[in-house]
Fold this sequence. Notes:
Largest sheet of chain A: 7 strands, mixed
Oligomer: homodimer
Amino acid sequence: MESSDSPLSQLDSLFNPRSIAVIGASDKTGRIGFVVVNSLVQGGFSGLIFPVNPRLTRLLDMPAFPSIEVIPDEVDLAIIVLRKELVLKAMDECGRKGVRAVIVMSSGFSELGEGKAEEELVTKARHYGMRFLGPNCAGYAAPWESVYASFENRVQQGNLGFISQSGAMCAVFLALARAEGLGLSMFVSYGNAADIGPDELLKYLNKHEPSHLIACYLEGLIVRQARQFLLAARLVTPHKPILVLKPGNTRAGARAIASHTGTLAGEQAIYSGAFRQVGILQANTLYEFIDACKTLTALPLPTGDRVAIMTNSGGPGVLTVDACAHVGLTVPQFDSTFMQHLKKVLPPSCSVDNPVDVGPEGNEGTYQHIVQLLLANKNIDIVLVVCVPPAFSDIRAITKAVIAAKRTCTSKPLVTCWMAGDIVAESLPLLEKASIPNFPTPQRAATALSFLVQRARWLNSQP
Amino acid sequence: MESSDSPLSQLDSLFNPRSIAVIGASDKTGRIGFVVVNSLVQGGFSGLIFPVNPRLTRLLDMPAFPSIEVIPDEVDLAIIVLRKELVLKAMDECGRKGVRAVIVMSSGFSELGEGKAEEELVTKARHYGMRFLGPNCAGYAAPWESVYASFENRVQQGNLGFISQSGAMCAVFLALARAEGLGLSMFVSYGNAADIGPDELLKYLNKHEPSHLIACYLEGLIVRQARQFLLAARLVTPHKPILVLKPGNTRAGARAIASHTGTLAGEQAIYSGAFRQVGILQANTLYEFIDACKTLTALPLPTGDRVAIMTNSGGPGVLTVDACAHVGLTVPQFDSTFMQHLKKVLPPSCSVDNPVDVGPEGNEGTYQHIVQLLLANKNIDIVLVVCVPPAFSDIRAITKAVIAAKRTCTSKPLVTCWMAGDIVAESLPLLEKASIPNFPTPQRAATALSFLVQRARWLNSQP
């Protein structure tokens, strides 16, 4: 049976299905076949779930089926978690059943040199007009649609779409995202990308409204994929930012990739140039990657690179200036009118130049007043607020004051650097809720802001 | 009364006293005068504690005294937590009582332009032959001696001596240390350093056996202090490493310092040069600072800069090569004999060059065997072990395996990069206990290792 639908609506069957069968469902809690069914249930999937396993009659209070073909309803999406030898037959059954999209989680294909077995999956899918994700993938989660078609399910809802070949890096990234309070609109592990590759995912996420940023961990992008990826990116970047972390950006790293995968070391520089050209932002480290996600999903773009810093401690203020300078942000001196204004508001021991240092006595009132003034200053594009809470200060009250000040100006990016650890921990959920990205060090705050400036500059450079 | 003791033994009275009076002790739990007494008690101080406050007769089950002069025993150390106006009189009483060392936590002196009031404290102390820390300081904690003479008391015992002018940065640093499982042998907030400055603290910590590394946060080091600091450092660095974090290492940062403190911006470069010359290691960011503390306190020095990387995932392996290259570490190719050896041990799908990639199936046995081989390889100076735990892997078992492998070679530095967050959290205490520093990202691991190499190189360069 050939489907008459366009490819995009098949991706809708994949990412927003009305019914899902799990072929290889299991009642053993340690097995992926159990975890996936359980994720779908726990995630609140609103459609029908069909566990498929000839040895089961029920699973998690649902009827189980010996084969996908005997399911009495239509099946939009089938997830295959069988061992490699059984996958092709299952694909055949899916095709006969009229399934529109498949996720093949099973591994043991081209990643282990079994390219021929993988080609057979592609041929089978084409025959039936099905599209599939994988093989050797971790599936996906779509928190806004309540679909957790993966064995990774602890995802907070937000505005970041994340794609990764590697399932392991999905797990790492999701753990970091949880720790940083970063919410996702979607994550997709595309595995070997035998059929659906990163290019199509870019285009899908471009139309996926909750996704404001598309972040890609591009390990082992092969040349064919890369070309398609760049072509797709060119269509997306005018509308949504794309952020890439690609291992191998030093000579030694590129050599390591070359010796492991057979790609050419010289290609790395070509990638970087091509990424820049189509407006893809590139992170160099895992922290840069996650921190750029935090600013790019939450904040408006700045109109320039001029940062005002507010601090209650001189040294951390200067560390913040150092960090801004290091990533190419400008920390301008204030004009004399503005400094006169600050002088009227602050005690004489405070510094009224940039960074404004309100001293350890700076309380919630001071923070609210000064942040508001900085946001209103037309020579300032970005506000970075530092707090090193002394023992007697009320960091929750200061946090609420900054949140209140932010409401007076929603057009300028504002981030905080609350230092540090358990001292400030209880105030971080307040910042997250108010969409104020917080960073534990000045360096991470400044680097994250520099991605906003890069994005704004690239958009401005477009005709 | 002039003391006939040498300055060092007076510092012993400060840092290892037999009896402590707290002048300005309070029964109100929110007050510093309460927190300090409580810290001494909770910290298990083995000597006598004398709360001093005319309005109290008892505090925390101890007799309180209306004045220090009526205490029937000798007092080695007095901690003054009175408001500024009362400090000089209290110093006088301490002198008459024969107190040998004083901590003046009270603020409101030279940091607010009240240099004359501070000079009076110095004159008074000289008159009685007393030494003092502060004013405007947070005191100190010495976990090995069970003395917590501070309102900061949540400190894990370890081998790092930390000194900081700023009490707020002490709090920040201690919070980071707690989060990173880094133990301290001592922290000292020296405040305005009217009497005891960072130079004397360096010399004291040089003789303080539990302190293996001296880390200094040098905000607002004035020129006179700087000269003495460098002279002291020159005596210390041949024996113990000194690590410095000094805000103002970019042009913009230096300008910010200059405008706030009146020191010259050009001095920053001179500082860096002087630091290098006397063998002081310099961190550029807060993470570099804390991460260098982790390696320098826990690990032997390497004989070279050749890093072997082991990973169970290709991309993170290459990210690690990138990170090593970025900080100047070498990731050499293995010789063919060694690769043959690895080939015999590992499945054919694994990569046997550097980084060794054992793939997602790599289990505790693989980790133990490979780490042991890398540690035994005479062409390798440092071993960096990466693990991105797949859902089915047992990260605790892998952790124990690495710890067991480490026992076969104690002369080479070994660190781990367990990625990430809550997935690996339960295994981190095992690593801490085994003195294996762990880092959440390859970049932080590589940077931390580069400080070990710097230290080894500097020692080797000495005649």
